[in-house]
Amino acid sequence: MAIHIATLAKAPYLWIRRAVADTLFERRYDVRTSPVIELDELGIPAHERIRYQATGWLNLPRILPAREVGPHDVFVDFGSGMGRVVLQAATRYPCKKVIGVELSGRLVGIARANVARNAHRLRCAEVSFVESDALDYEIPDDMTIAFFHNPFTGSIFARVLQRIVESVDRAPRTVRVVYVNPVEERALLETGRARVVRRLRGMRPTAEWSRSNSTRMYEITPRAIGHGVAG
Fold this sequence. Notes:
It is a single chain. The chain has one domain (2-225): Rossmann fold, CATH 3.40.50. 37% of the residues lie in helices and 17% in strands. It has eight helices and seven strands. It has a seven-stranded mixed sheet with strand order 3-2-1-4-5-7-6. The longest helix is centred in the N-terminal third of the chain and has 28 residues, at 2-29. This is Class I SAM-dependent methyltransferase. GO terms for molecular function: methyltransferase activity. Its EC number is 2.1.1.-.
């Protein structure tokens, strides 16, 4: 009975919580990032891809404090949507570059406008959006932070992950992966190259609800200095 009540309460609770947070964020930055948009509205096939939904505005600063990011870091948001995370990263961190990778040209246009309205706030000098399928995107060999808000699953995630690992081996460095709603965590850990370094747990009544509201950070390291798998 308790689980049933919790399930019934989930939708209004999430709606109210997100609405308040989104209003505060969007008023501060004068942006539009919050609508949930289904893939059919964007003309994108749904197989292994997830609808657009903005990341909670506290996820990134909580999992990745500003003191842990420097001018050598290159931040890439896979599935950047309307640019909320790109904007947060570019205004919070003194990165070398912040890049958003997004398949929908419609969302890329909105994201660019959102960042342009906040040009005076940016701490990162180079902010860009790439309109591309993640499967076609060439992983930069200087990328040090990869961000995913569960934009895709299955074979798409596996292929993007493989390319990240290949890039790490080609240009040895540590890449931090920030993953919101980490449904493909098993694929990450089974590479033998990733380990969990930080967890933010979703405090929710059910396990599925808790996972969908969790954020985790992993490190992927070169083969020669790999740490193996962390439980």
